[in-house]
Amino acid sequence: MRVPVVLCFDRRILLGAGVTILSLLDTAAATTCYEIHVLHPGLPQRAMEAFRRLVAGTRHSLSFRHLPPAALGKVPTRGGSRTAVVYYRLLIPQLYTQYDKVIYSDVDVCVRRDLAEVYAEDLGD
Question: How far apart are CA 6 and CA 55, in angstroms?
Answer without folding.
Answer: 15
